[in-house]
Amino acid sequence: MSFRPFTSESYAQDDRAEAWRDVLRAVGLRPASGSAFHYGHATAIHRNLAGVALSRISAGSQGVSPLSQPSEDLPIALLPTEDGVVLRSETGHRIIPVGHLLLLPRNGDWSVVFQRDMRAIVLSVTSDAMHGRILRKPRFGEPQVVAPVGFADVFSRSLEATARTLEILTDVEWASVAQNLVELLSTLAQRRSVPTPDTNNNNTATQAAILHRICQTIERTLDDPELSPARVAQAEGISERYLQKLFEGVGDNFTHYVRERRLQRAWADLSNPTEVHRSISEIAYRYGFGDSAHFSRTFRHRFGLPPREFRQQEAGRMAAPSVVGQRGWPQDALAQLRTHQPPAVVKSSAVIASGETGDARTAAEQGHHHIAVDAAKVHWGYFSRALAPQTEIRSGDTITIETLTQHASDDPERMIAADPGAESVFGWTKHHKNIDRRGAGPMDASVFGRGAGEGFGVHICTGPVAVREARPGDVLEVRILDIVPRPSRNREFEGRVFGSSVAAWWGYHYNEFLAGPKPREAVTIYEILSSDETPHARALYSYRWEPQTDPFGVVHNTYDYPGVPVAPGTVKRRHAVLDGIRIPLRPHFGVIAVAPREADFVDSVPPSYFGGNLDNWRLGKGSTIYLPVSVPGALLSVGDPHAAQGDGELSGTAIECSMTGTFQIILHKKGDLAGRAFADLSYPLIETETDWVLTGFSHPNYLAEFGSQGQSEVYAKSSLDLAMRDAFRKMRRFLMNVKGLSEDEAIALMSAAVDFGVTQVVDGNWGVHAILSKKLFPDVS
Amino acid sequence: MRHFTLPVSPATVHWGYFSKKVAPALTVRSGDRATIETLTHHANDDYERMIANDPGAESVFQWTREHKAVARRGAGSTEGPFIKGSGEGLGVHLLTGPVAIENAERGDVLEVRILDVRPRPSCHACHAGRCFGSNAAANWGFHYHDLIEEPKPREVITIFELDTSGEPFAKAVYNYVWTPQTDPDGIAHPTIDYPGVRVDHSTIRKRDNILPSVKVPARLHFGTMGLAPSEADFVSSIPPSYSGGNIDDWRIGKGARMYYPVAVPGAFFSVGDPHAAQGDSELGGTAIETSLTGDFEFILHKHRDLSGTPLEGLGHPMLETEQAWSVYGFTYPNYLAELGASAQTEIANHSSLDRAMRDAFRKLRRFLMTVHKLSEDEAISLMSVGADFGVTQVVDANWGVHGTIRKNVFGCD
Fold this sequence. Notes:
Radius of gyration of chain A: 31 Å
Distance between the termini of chain B: 35 Å
Strand order of the largest sheet of chain B: 1-5-21-7-18-22-23-25-24
Strand content of chain A: 15-25%
Largest sheet of chain B: 9 strands, mixed
Distance between the termini of chain A: 53 Å
Helix content of chain A: 25-40%
Largest interface: A-B, 87 and 86 residues
Structural class of chain A: alpha+beta
Oligomer: heterodimer
Number of strands of chain B: 25
Helix content of chain B: 10-25%
Number of helices of chain B: 6
Shape of chain A: globular
Strand content of chain B: 25-35%
Number of helices of chain A: 19
Radius of gyration of chain B: 21 Å
């Protein structure tokens, strides 16, 4: 992850000094000797990319000095932003006014002292960022102070603008901005460096200027396969011999330099997501490689990887875990892959005619149904309007639905072994995978190669259940009558209940670990003690995720595909975790959904108007959820069972534990909704014994809002601020429409009595819920 | 243990700011108790019900052309000519105090226990003994630029009565739309932009029978409680920060213990902004603002004694109730230090729940790791499955998200 925020609030008082040292180190600085660490508040925003590091720093009064690094690097650029600084060096003290730029050598005896608070922007560019470009090594014996005039002003303003927007630039934008900062700094450093000749380098300033011009000419004509020293020399009006001498003067030669620049430019284009539509041979040709086989060989020789592999690796790096909230479809892949989408597999409708429905008819008025979980009864990682129902029920019927957690594979011995239902769903050998599609992605896994469906959606959903006569515009009421956990069938653990919680790469914490290794994923296995006097869960052991090879041979470096069995020998179990800690249980279903109308395959991760992955622990026994029906039959699915979860679901998962629910389903026809609490329903509404809980999202209907881009955009645009606004608007509407209040009454009441809370910050479409206590309306029964 | 009483008067309140420069109204030692009266700065929304014939309230709110009992209201300029009035309303809460704590030094932690909270009854003959409060859906509310009914925008005052005969609850009495008010110094206030301006009831139209049959369960608490920050002499009372202040969490009521890091010698504790009820988020900009009196106990924890206690490494306000611990995350955990010279006005341009959530996460992680000796992996797993994050307020410039962990998570075995 290239973006890194720092705040001293994260650290205990005594650890702050060391943490602060790391912040300074990232831009080539250290605390000046004799400068005591300021124990007050300190923050920094930091971003880096292959040798370029930019920090915006805000802290108490202090002094900084160089780390003493190899000096091929460009000088450090430091821009004080609020107050002047004192520059101490061998030549004495100077007071530098705010807005002046300091170019600081990587070595030497200098320090910059912030007399009042330290507020500065610091840019560090090391030789890694230069991509083999020749620069006459800028010599900086002494720090230089540059007034904000002309070119230096352009540079300072770019620095400021970049530092201000550091946290919102996308990776692509940042890469491009960072490259520009390198250009600007290197030009400024060239112009400001001391032209004293040293023993190894007898370039004069004139020679340097000519060489600089030559390099620019080369840069402009890299596409010319005929580019030769003779041509360039001619264009510059110098002899070829002299040209070669100029290159020798900096320890290089023309041919090598041109090849290096061509390869570096091709390297940059291959790793640039906005260039993916160009073929590799097009890029090779663009940089003067007429023969793509030759290019491929040369590229591999230079970078150790053929261009094709390199590009795939870069695509994965850009799109996957490194960016906050990048689950689901990577943004660029979507357009290309839409055409490859196979139509949803429509199962034989015979299922409806026979099976449960027939049995249910034998019951009198209200039928009871049961769906035992197995591979034929679930869909994994997506919702779909195109799935054939497992069974059809009537309004008023009850149904028992077994659900499995997709995290059972974190400890297959405890949560899958000897359980026929679980074994059937998770069944996966070298030759056969019982449930191939996991997620809404392409079946050929051509985006990341993780597996069929690409894990764009992870939840094992039991269903769908069709409700007779349900039509778009109706409301489906789902009452949760009971929830019981699914005990282990393995003789060794028989009757005991287990769950798993993963601190995963999509967790809220993932980009700011305090301690190494960074980043990491950790799995904690819990035992669920639900018959205890105070039902609770306790941690049994935990392990760090290690790359897992699935039965088809795909290696999963992160938790990027659901249901990959973790072989006990591949991880190191740590016992005595969360010692003495009991987690009070809150059994609930994370996912309760009706099928969305917009698309055939919808990622199960982001919740929306149709319900889905709400991850609200209030959806437990005794509560009810109302969902707006969008497709004929409603197509209800249930999954993602949780034994306990906090508001926020911070690490990315709850205690994920297979459970069986019993529900009563009531259909409210569109014409009968007037005057009911769920009239005019366009979102999932939860009713508990004591409260109404309204669900707000960053994007209330992301499928409609973003259209065909919805399933990738929603991950990029998560925000609690937006979710709060949505929750406010929904609650206002509820109070006005359902409770008959005026807008002024509604707002007064929300301020005095409605509680807003954070539902989750990990499911792409972040959630804020609003809780209205029924106690406020004592006259309503 | 000694017990003091601190009634309200112009000499015992400061209005709209925290300050290390104000002379203490009371000095106590660790272990002492005090009964402290507080007034809501919204009392003038209905002078008759909330001020008239109440000597304490009348003395504080007194403002005629000749005499303004408490001139400075806010951390803004005290040199005329004024746009809104002395202090410029940069900070609005009537705060009682400061209470200085003997021997308190920077680095210590002050524990404030709220032993009891009582409403302040009306003294007016027609309403004697009954308790009232005011809720303003104000220009700083979350809804203000997002209204659907006309006129837009508008500010609305709702007057509530607090019924304490049984399980206490509040009921709306009437409401009115704010009309431009002119203060005794001749400055017009087209919106609610300066505290303590008496609303001339001949200019408003009261609407009765509002929120009929709605009972708001009472949650008596103090919206603003905290210590003087070190960064500036006069600090607006609106944005909460590392030394507490306008946290606006309704859980800070009877039985609560608040912990604050001491930033200046003597700690300088002040309390005000009393509320009869508030929801998480305080959406419209205010709670049911009701004058209250509290009984407090002060316990000073010296820096050297913090190690090994739940206060180890504490750099922000923290709440302990019978059931839970809560830490407070803000958009900017210390906005005064982070935003520099113009912090007190700049903070309003940066309000964000996303940043507040991030801060709450970090603070709770630190608490679990430092105090409960969990590894980072343990802390993160526990937060996901056992901690609850809620929206404290979205109206006090420095927005808040609180992170709560229940005490029964930490079993004794």
